[in-house]
Every structure is written in structure tokens, then in C-alpha cells.
Design a protein that fits this description.
With 277 residues, the protein is mainly alpha-helical. The protein is built from 10 helices and 3 strands; from the N terminus they run ααββααααααααβ.
Length: 277
């Protein structure tokens, strides 16, 4: 646990403090509707990306003779045995990384006249990139997470894990810069960081119902870690962002709220009992 705390401090808290200190105080009117929509879409994107990760863990195992994986709403399991299953534990981190890259590309191409879809693409990119990159970085130090288990299977030692960890950190820096340029809510100073921090904190509360039942620490810890790390590198990225005007149309709240409720029903009513592959 101490290693995890040090990693979170170094990968999240440190860039947050450094990035925020370098920003000007900044001025921007509070767009309450935009922030509400952003919070809903952040929570929606977290759970959708988590589902992408679970599919990335389950589908490859379903193709292996002797393995019978089960898709759950907040975990995965399988019956049978095959040594390659440990290698396939990295499939979730690969799937979420690909999802993040696709939505990062989309976030820069959705028309400003479609603010809800721009916000959705932004948060899908954020969640895909930081849910994945945080796993790659932490897995270099902790063998218990999915990437760590994959690296153990591959027999990766310090000579391989060191460059991989550095590469993951460099990728986080790049992700923070690119995402900051695409964040479709005005402002680049400390006011923007304060707004983003509020969005991410409230989104964690909305994410909790998707993650129960499970140990309380695990229900909250993963979204907190992902959001803190992502916020830290966004703070760095905002130093490279130009001010952007308000979009001419406001994002929808009803659509994201309905989508969030529908996804929660899917998680708890369909995925929670388990789907065998």
C-alpha cells in the first residue's frame, strides 16, 4: 500500500502542484450547465471505459481452449486453467489505451456546435488514457495489478520495467497536453483546475453505484487514483493551452443523465449476475 501511495503522490499530486503553481490565477465565468454536463459525462465515461477494460480481459480468454471467462459488472473471473491467462491480463490496459486514443482523435474533430458530444469524446479520451497509463506505470512497481501480472508472465525485470515506467510517464505528459487543448470549457488558469477538480470529485460519487458490491476501499480507490493522476497531468497541460471562447450552444444535461441511468441499469441488472463467454 505504501508503494501505491508514493506512486499516486509522484504521478498525480506532484504534477498537480507543479502545474497549478505555474498557472496564472485566471478569470472565467462559471458555466454551471457545462460543469453539470461535464460531471455526468465524466462518470459515464469512467464506467464505459471500465467496461471496455473488462471486455479486453474477457474476450481474449474466451478464445483460449480450456478457459471459460465470466463478465461481471465490476470484476471478472474464469474457470479452467491455462498459463497464458496471466499474459492476457494485460488485455484490459491495451483495450482502454486504444479507446482513449480513438476518442482523443475524435475530441479534436467533433464540431463546436455539438458541445455534448465534444464533452463525451473528451471524457472518454481522458478515462481511456489515464485508466490505461496509470496501470502501465503502477504495474512496473506492483506485480498484483493486471499489467504487473502480465509483466511477471513475460519475466520482465528492472531492465525492462524501468524504460516502460519512463515511457508511461512521458505518455501521461503528452496526454495531459493534448487533452488540455481539447477541453471544451473555457479558461486555462487556476480557475480551470478548480472546476476540473470539482467535476472529478463529484463524478467519483456518481461512479460508486456502478462499483458496488465490493470492498469500500476498492469501490472508491480506483476512480480516485485515476482522477488524481489525470488531474495532475491536465494541470501541466493547461500551461500549454490557449483561452477558448464559450460554445455557442450549451451542452445537454438530460441526455447524459439518461445515458448514465441506463448504463447503471445495465451494470446492476444484466452484468452483475455474470455473463459466461
Amino acid at each position: 500500500m505504501m508503494i501505491l501511495l508514493w506512486l499516486v503522490a509522484g504521478l498525480g499530486l506532484l504534477p498537480l502542484l507543479v502545474g497549478t503553481a505555474r498557472l496564472k490565477r485566471g478569470k472565467a465565468p462559471v458555466d454551471s450547465r457545462g460543469l453539470a454536463a461535464s460531471t455526468l459525462l465524466c462518470a459515464l465515461a469512467f464506467s464505459l471505459t471500465f467496461l471496455v477494460q473488462e471486455l479486453g480481459l474477457v474476450i481474449p480468454k474466451a478464445l483460449v481452449p480450456g478457459l471459460d471467462p465470466i463478465l461481471y459488472h465490476n470484476d471478472h473471473d474464469w474457470s479452467g486453467d491455462a498459463p497464458v491467462a496471466e499474459l492476457l491480463q494485460g488485455g484490459g490496459a491495451v483495450a482502454t489505451l486504444l479507446s482513449g486514443l480513438v476518442f482523443l482523435w475524435l475530441a479534436g474533430r467533433v464540431s463546436p456546435e455539438r458541445p455534448t458530444w465534444r464533452l463525451f469524446a473528451f471524457w472518454m479520451a481522458f478515462q481511456g488514457l489515464f485508466q490505461s497509463l496509470s496501470q502501465w506505470a503502477i504495474g512496473c512497481w506492483l506485480s498484483g495489478n493486471d499489467v504487473g501480472r502480465m509483466l511477471t508472465y513475460l519475466g520482465a525485470g528492472p531492465a525492462a520495467k524501468g524504460p516502460l515506467f519512463v515511457s508511461a510517464v512521458i505518455a501521461m505528459i503528452a496526454a495531459g497536453i493534448q487533452l488540455a487543448r481539447r477541453y471544451p470549457i473555457p479558461g486555462k488558469g487556476r480557475i480551470a483546475i478548480a472546476q476540473l477538480a470539482a467535476v472529478l470529485a463529484i463524478a467519483v460519487v456518481l461512479i460508486v453505484p456502478f462499483r458496488v458490491p465490493r470492498e469500500p476501499v476498492e469501490v472508491v480507490l480506483i476512480p480516485l487514483v485515476v482522477h488524481l493522476i489525470g488531474l495532475g497531468w491536465l494541470a501541466v497541460g493547461l500551461n500549454f493551452r490557449r483561452d477558448t471562447p464559450f460554445p455557442s450552444t450549451a451542452p445537454s444535461i438530460a441526455g447524459p443523465l439518461a445515458a448514465l441511468a441506463a448504463l447503471l441499469a445495465l451494470f446492476q441488472l444484466v452484468l452483475r449476475p455474470g455473463i459466461s463467454f
